[in-house]
Amino acid sequence: MFVGFDAGVSNIWGYKNTYVGYFAGYSDYQKLSATNSTAIGAGTFTTRNNQVVIGDENVVETQLRANVYIGSTSSTSHTPLFVARRKALSIFKTYAYV
Question: In the chain, where are the structural domains located?
């Protein structure tokens, strides 16, 4: 499903993909045969199969307002979440459990 001006134009041979946004999936870096991939936001693109991309390189914040499970659909399984934030030239690392 492609929604947005020129969304999905670069995906020539792929299938089961979703592109939502102005020029989503329209990039020289877009995998031409991507399968089961999703790009959400203006200028987003996917580079491999089974990938979800939210926002392009200009996005500075992404908010998820619900529980996030990594590698599991169970809330009883706690997987460490690594978050790296860049500020100036330093990299700060934060570990959290979700």
Answer: 1-57, 66-98
